[in-house]
Design a protein that fits this description.
The protein is an alpha+beta fold. The protein has a domain at 70-74 and 111-268: Calycin beta-barrel core domain (Lipocalin, Beta Barrel). The protein has 7 helices and 10 strands. The protein has a 9-stranded mixed barrel.
């Protein structure tokens, strides 16, 4: 009988507890409905980028600007083709799958590039003669914006007056002068970069680029009148949004834009290494200048000197 009374008591306690908890908000509910603590007064409010993504507010330089310092790299297929493209066989059959071109969704906004008819014809000819015409094949400086998304990292170093970009490919580099108003004294492979700040975005106005650089390996090109507006915006501790608007009325019917994320390289002891490609293209560029000796000439040079008349042999020095 004692067992039955004990069980009855336990049951009554459980029922009373259940009724009490059902009438009162749970601890979890109370926590969820409690007002959130106000953000610290020193926290920077998040703003919006041009694309609507929340802008990251991270470490600052001594002058209060976002700190872009570090080694960065793009991860996409824009180096092969900045427009959307299918995978296809590469130009060297002997390389098989390793020489193939990967598919890509493209980085150009708003559809195909707005080529003028005559410029589109030139682009197609460039693509058909990629290995013969691409300046990258010849180890020329890549120019902008191509240097940004080549399959090589680049480093950013900055202070209040300058932002320096050092690219691994072919020792390419440029310096963005903050607040500079002067124009390019002469055209160059990496252009003339004038910088300014739009809030937390670094804006770079690039002019004075030679017409010899390309955008990609698909033959997309520009004229010497090209004008670029680059925008660099931090989006997280290790990502950055890169946007560039291209204005070239000689080649395109209107300005156009491409954008992509850039990623900070986080490997231990990461650093820029050398990609000195000049020795790689000596045979390609200068091999045709080498004198080809025929077998007869080689045989003649190896014969012993027969000089009965006292004449000097070719190359001999008189005593």
């Amino acid at each position: 009988m004692r067992v039955s009374i004990r069980n009855l008591t336990v049951a009554l306690v459980v029922m009373v507890s259940a009724l009490w908890f059902s009438a009162s908000p749970s601890l979890g509910q109370a926590t969820q409905t409690a007002p959130k603590a106000a953000a610290p007064a020193t926290a920077r409010p998040a703003t919006q980028t041009a694309q609507g993504a929340q802008r990251y507010s991270g470490p600052r330089t001594p002058d209060g600007k976002p700190d872009f310092s570090g080694i960065w790299q793009a991860i996409n297929t824009a180096e092969w083709d900045i427009q959307a493209h299918d995978a296809k066989q590469g130009p060297l059959v002997v390389m098989g799958a390793e020489g193939g071109i990967p598919a890509g969704i493209g980085v150009v906004e708003g559809g195909p590039l707005p080529y003028k008819p005559e410029a589109l014809k030139q682009k197609k000819e460039n693509e058909e003669n990629w290995l013969a015409r691409d300046p990258e094949v010849k180890c020329f400086l890549p120019g902008l914006p191509r240097a940004t998304y080549m399959p090589f990292p680049f480093e950013i170093v900055q202070n209040s007056k300058f932002v320096a970009f050092n690219y691994e490919f072919d020792f390419a580099s440029r310096v963005v002068n903050i607040g500079m108003k002067s124009e390019a004294p002469v055209d160059s492979w990496m252009g003339w970069s004038k910088g300014s700040w739009d809030g937390d975005t670094l804006v770079v106005d690039v002019t004075g680029m030679v017409e010899d650089t390309w955008f990609d390996r698909a033959g997309d090109f520009h004229s010497g009148d090209m004008h670029l507006i680059e925008r660099y915006t931090m989006t997280s501790p290790n990502t950055m949004l890169y946007e560039v608007t291209v204005d070239d009325p000689q080649v395109y019917t209107r300005p156009w834009k491409m954008s992509m994320p850039l990623y900070r390289r986080m490997e231990k002891n990461i650093q820029l290494l050398e990609y000195n490609c000049v020795p790689f293209v000596e045979e390609l560029q200068l091999g045709h200048l080498r004198k080809v000796r025929t077998p007869e000439e080689i045989e003649q040079d190896n014969k012993p000197i027969d000089n009965p008349g006292g004449k000097l042999a070719p190359g001999a020095v008189p005593e």
